[in-house]
Amino acid sequence: MFLFFEMPSQLCESKPDFWHNHRMRLHFCVLLFLAKSLFAQSPIIQKSKTTENLRGVSTLPNQVAWASGTHGTYLRTTDGGKSWQAAQVPAAESLDFRDVEAFSGELAYLLSAGPGDQSRIYKTTDAGKNWALQFANKDPKGFFDCMMFWNRDHGIAVGDPIVDNSDKLKFELVTTEDGGKNWKPIPPDALPAAVDGEGAFAASGTCITVQGNSNVWFATGGKVARVFRSTDAGKTWTVADTPIIHGPDSTGIFSIAFRDATHGVIAGGDYQHPERDGPNLAYTDDGGLTWKLSTLSPQTYFSAVAFAKPDSGDTSVFVVGSTRSAYADDITKKAWQKSWDLNLNALSIAPSGEAIAVGPHGLIVSFSAR
Questions:
Q1: What is the side-by-side strand order in the sheet with 346-349?
Q2: With contact defined as beta carbons under 8 Å apart, do 362 and 73 qualify?
Q3: What are phi and psi for residue 112, nearest 5 degrees?
Q4: Please, what's the b/e burial string for 287-314 (b: 16 or more CB within 10 A of its CB; e: otherwise)?
Q5: What are phi and psi of 182, to 5 degrees?
Q6: Which of 102, 161, 360, 367 could form a disulfide with 355 if both were Cys (CB 3.0 to 4.6 A apart)?
Q7: Cα dihedral sign for 219, 213, 138, 108?
Q8: Three-state DSSP class for 118?
Q9: What's the CA gap between 276 and 23, in Å, rounded?
C-alpha cells in the first residue's frame, strides 16, 4: 500500500538537515497520519436500546440524530450517539417507519411505508413528546416509499405507481409548503408514465433526494431502473434510463444522492441476491440527464449511498448494504479504500462529516467521513 500525503510544515519540514537529524520526528508524523486516517473511517457500534429493524436515519451537524424502524419505533440522540432514547409513536405500533427527516433535536418527520393507509407521515416539534398525524394515504392500492425536504417547511414524498383517471400508470407524489399541515398531490399529468412493473424501494428512506430550492430526483427499479427529475419542485418532470441492474422485481436503484445541482450518485442491486456483483453503482455530472457506471469493485447490493463529504467538491462516497459497507475517496476509481462486513440498511451523513448507519436488530454504527 502506497500513501501520498502532505505533512504539516511546522512539524515535518522537508529541509536538507531534517532527514539527518529528525528521522524520529518523521516516523512520528507517518504513524500519526496513518492512525488518524484509519481511525477516521473506523465504525463504532452504538447502543440503541432496541432490537427493532431500523431503516431510517437522519444525522445533523450538532450531534443530533434520529432513526426509525419497525413497530412504530423512533430513536433520538443529542450527544452524537453516546446515548439513544428509543420509543414508539402512540397508536402506531403496527407501522414500519422507513424514513425519518430531522431538523433539530425537537423537530422531525416520520414516514411509514405500507399498503393503503399504512403509508403515513407524522411530525413532532417537541422531541417526540407529541406526534401529529399529517398525512394518511387514502388509496388502498397506494404504497409510499420515502420523503425528502428542501427545508423544514417544504417537502415531497413519493409512492409507487397507481392507475390515474386516464388509465395511465403514474407514480404518486405529494408535497407540502407549510410544514406538513397540508400535503397536496402532484397532478399525474405532470409526470411521465411509469412502466408496468416499475416501482420505488422503501429500503432506506433515500429513493428520493432534493437540492437547492426546487431540484428533486427520485429513483426506480423493477422492470426498469430510471431516475425522474424535476427542477421546479415537482411541477414538471423528465425521466432518464440508467445502467443499473434491473428486470426482476427485486432489482433496481435503491438510493440516490446529489451534492449539488449537477453531481449525483445512484446505488442498488438485487436485494434477494445481495452478494451478486453489479452493475449497482453509477454517477452523473449533468444533473441526472445521463448516468455512467462506476468502475469501483466489487459492487454487491447497496441499499443506501451518500457523498462522504457533501459540503465539498469531491466524489468520495459511502455505501451500505446487507452484505458489505464501503468507502471510496473517488467514485471513478476501481477499488474501495475501506470496506466492512456490516449488515446495514440506511445511511445519513451530516455536512460536518459525521455519518450514522442503521440496520437490523437495532444496529447503529457511527463513522467519521473526515
A1: 44-46, 364-368, 354-358, 346-349
A2: no
A3: -100, 140
A4: bbeebeebebeebbbbbbbbbbbbeeee
A5: -135, 130
A6: 367
A7: positive
A8: helix
A9: 48
Structural contact between residues 12 and 31, judged by C-beta atoms closer than 8 angstroms: no
Give the whole-angstrom CA distance, residue 241 versus residue 220.
Answer: 10
Task: Give dist(CA 195, CA 243) in Å, integer.
Answer: 16
Would you state the cell numbers that stand for residue 11, as one nine-digit string? 512539524
Name beta bridge partners: 156: 148, 175
Contact 348, 57 (CB under 8 A): yes
Cα(81)–Cα(60) distance, integer angstroms: 12
* Helix or strand (DSSP H, E) at 32: helix 23-40
75: left (phi over 0), alpha (psi -120 to 50) or beta: beta
- pLDDT mean for each 10 residues of the chain (370 residues): 31 36 37 36 90 98 96 97 97 98 98 98 98 96 97 98 90 98 95 96 98 98 98 97 98 97 97 96 98 97 92 87 95 95 96 90 84
Q: Tell me, what amino acid is at 214?
A: S
User: Rounded distance, CA 302 to CA 204, Å?
Assistant: 10
Q: What is the DSSP string of 200-264?
A: ---SSS-SEEEETTTEEEEE-EES--EEEEESSTTSS-EEEE--S--SSTTEEEEEEEESSSS-E
Note whether 369 and 355 are within 8 A (CB): yes
- Kindly compute the dihedral angle of the four CA atoms of residues 96, 101, 103, 109, in this order, to the nearest 10 degrees: -50
d(CA 146, CA 157): 6
Kindly give the pairing relationship between strand 198-199 and strand 120-124.
unpaired
Pair type for strands 317-320 and 338-340 = unpaired
49 and 65 Cβ atoms separated by less than 8 Å = no
DSSP 164-182: -TTS-EEEEEEEESSTTS-
For residue 363, give the amino acid letter.
Answer: L
**DSSP assignment, residue 323?**
S
**pTM of the entire structure?**
0.88
Question: What is the distance of C-alpha 76 from the center of its chain?
Answer: 18
| CA atoms of 220 and 94, how far apart (whole Å) | 26
Evaluate whether 53 touches 360 at the Cβ level (below 8 Å): yes
